[in-house]
Design goal:
mainly alpha, two-stranded parallel sheet, elongated, 2 strands, about 190 residues
């Protein structure tokens, strides 16, 4: 029994839960993208009506959103919990799979190496799926705002490369200034009515 056959068995056992996790991650992120596009378009239209269209979006605004970060964190936590659960189930559970694996005429380190390699493959698969999804989300992001004639700043490589602290704080500060202007305009209009 060689290591590749053991890795194949482990990957076969993990495939269904892993595909469910990946599909939930991608669906959650695209749902958040849809909500983000809708809300930012409405905000920009409100800003445009008040006469202060100096608000510029970046893809970093979307990536820095809490639902996006939580979806990735949830996927990583689920993979870690699943790996611990697999080890528990194999060694402490009622199943006989681990007993059969340890009784095979091979080195026992192959069994542990196969489990470790499976977890590494899952993490690398998550990174690759996330990278592809991120590229698709960027295309949807830029094409949507370009069709709505809303200015978008930055390229994909720039947005993924920088840490987001300095530019994000400037963006948030300008966003708060714009929202204060909108609120003041609404309050002034309401006071004129009464």
């Amino acid at each position: 029994m060689n290591l590749l056959k053991l890795i194949g068995w482990e990957v076969e056992r993990v495939t269904k839960p892993y595909l469910i996790l990946i599909s939930l991650l991608v669906v959650t992120q695209f749902a958040w993208l849809g909500y983000f596009l809708w809300s930012e378009t409405a905000l920009y239209e409100e800003i445009r009506r008040t006469g202060t269209p100096d608000y510029v979006l970046t893809f970093g605004n979307y990536i820095g959103g809490t639902p996006f970060i939580l979806s990735i964190g949830f996927a990583v936590a689920a993979m870690l919990l699943y790996s611990f659960w697999i080890w528990y189930r194999d060694f402490q559970g009622r199943g006989t799979f681990m007993i059969r694996l340890l009784m095979l005429p091979q080195q026992r380190m192959f069994v542990f190496a196969a489990k470790l390699a499976t977890m590494i493959l899952m993490v690398l698969g998550l990174f690759s799926i996330q990278w592809i999804a991120l590229k698709l989300q960027y295309v949807a992001f830029t094409s949507w705002f370009s069709s709505q004639m809303i200015p978008v700043r930055g390229a994909f490589d720039q947005i993924v490369a920088y840490d987001g602290c300095e530019r994000r704080s400037e963006s948030v500060a300008s966003e708060h200034t714009i929202l204060r202007r909108i609120t003041n305009n609404r309050e002034a209009a309401a006071s004129r009515l009464f």
